[in-house]
Design a protein that fits this description.
It is a single chain. Helix 5 packs antiparallel against helix 7, helix 5 crosses helix 8 and helix 6 crosses helix 7. The relative contact order is 0.13. By secondary structure, the protein is mostly helical. The model has no long low-confidence stretch (mean pLDDT 87). The protein has eleven helices and no strands. It is elongated. The two termini are 22 Å apart. The chain has one domain. The longest helix is centred in the middle third of the chain and has 33 residues.
Length: 218
């Protein structure tokens, strides 16, 4: 868990905490910008088309990300009925935040490769507990990439109110949409399932994806 890094390498932890806020904000900003592009200015009118972290961070979701390993920010409010193309708009807006996180994860991994090429000993030592400036930076970049990947994979799960449920909804016949929108009212039940019954399967999915992603670069 990320919080363990606070005692092991405080500099890396605070670098990651800043980067984590950045990742969550850009995820939600991606949704808001995509919604505006498709004709829905609800998020803009409610002050969500901004880089201000206070407008996006969800206290519980952020704490879970630090202590449990996955979490969320405050969902961006949208009105799909205002989209110029309802089905395409719902798909693009729902997947926009995930795409942002995947791009950030890839960019961070390239940065880690660059740091490794610059000083491989310091980078390897950092993952074995030694603290140096280059090592702490490499550790922070690695965790930043990993957390963005976690956010992307977690949000892809087809569980209301996660983005994956709306991506799936955009592909289903319209007769199912009203029922799926109604499920949003029971997001508290999804939260209970995620932190209890589904916690271990989600961890396994995320761990497998992280290993596969890391193997692409190293």
């Amino acid at each position: 868990m990320l919080i363990q890094l606070l005692s092991e390498d405080p500099l890396a932890f605070f670098l990651i905490a800043i980067a984590l806020v950045f990742a969550l904000v850009l995820h939600e900003l991606g949704h808001a910008a995509a919604a505006l592009y498709f004709g829905d200015d609800t998020a803009k009118r409610m002050g969500r088309l901004t880089l201000n972290p206070l407008s996006h961070l969800d206290p519980l979701g952020t704490l879970l990300l630090l202590f449990v390993g996955f979490g969320w920010a405050k969902p961006v409010p949208i009105n799909p009925l205002r989209f110029r193309n309802y089905r395409l708009g719902l798909f693009v807006v729902s997947i926009a935040g995930i795409v942002v996180n995947l791009i950030l994860a890839v960019l961070a991994m390239f940065a880690l490769k660059a740091l490794f090429a610059y000083d491989p000993r310091a980078v390897m030592a950092a993952f074995q507990g030694a603290n140096t400036l280059i090592g702490s930076l490499a550790l922070a970049v690695y965790y930043f990439s990993s957390l963005n990947l976690v956010l992307a994979v977690f949000n892809l799960l087809p569980i209301p109110p996660l983005d994956g449920s709306k991506i799936l909804q955009s592909l289903l016949p319209l007769r199912f949409h009203r029922f799926l929108w109604e499920l949003e009212r029971y997001s508290w039940l999804s939260f209970l399932l995620i932190v209890t019954v589904l916690r271990e399967p989600i961890h396994q999915i995320i761990a497998y994806t992280q290993r596969a992603f890391l193997s692409l670069f190293f």
